[in-house]
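Hey,
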Amino acid sequence: MKSLAAALVFSIALPAAAMAADFPADRIVAMASGDWNKDGMADLAVIATPGDDSGDDNGLYVYLAKPEENRLTLALSLPNSVWGNLTMYGQEPEVAALANGSFTLTTKNDSVGRDRWRQSLTVAYRNFDFIVAGYTYSAYDTLNPDGGGECDLNVLTGKGKSSGRPVAGQAQFVLLKDWQDEIARSICGLDN
């Protein structure tokens, strides 16, 4: 009977310990809370470092509230997906909640070299998954006043502005996990 009780305790404790190890609490770079799935409960988006010397980029982890269980559950895990550097000022990734229940994921280089840029993705929860609803990009060259550009694009309609001029492309429904910057950059006419 004791071995059965020990086995039960071990089988319950092991998954709980493994799940706790998956949560990158000690590696959090930025986080935001909002109601992503519009169920009236606070959800969470977290940017976390990879936690090792692998050279990987930061990861994005999005949690949805499970009110019946009094906890958050992982809804999206995108390790090695968010560029940024915590040791260099002006390269820290950001995440921010928006009033409409979406959030922005921002990467930037505001401090190093002559090419400075800032890129934000507006992420929305649709059809039980996270999609890229908007793309905003601005860049400038510290040595060339005519260098750089900007773009603000509604990915869902394919319409926006690039360097002050209207642009239009194909309306797209792109899951965040499938996002490639080239999708918006090609519509905006931005150089890679």
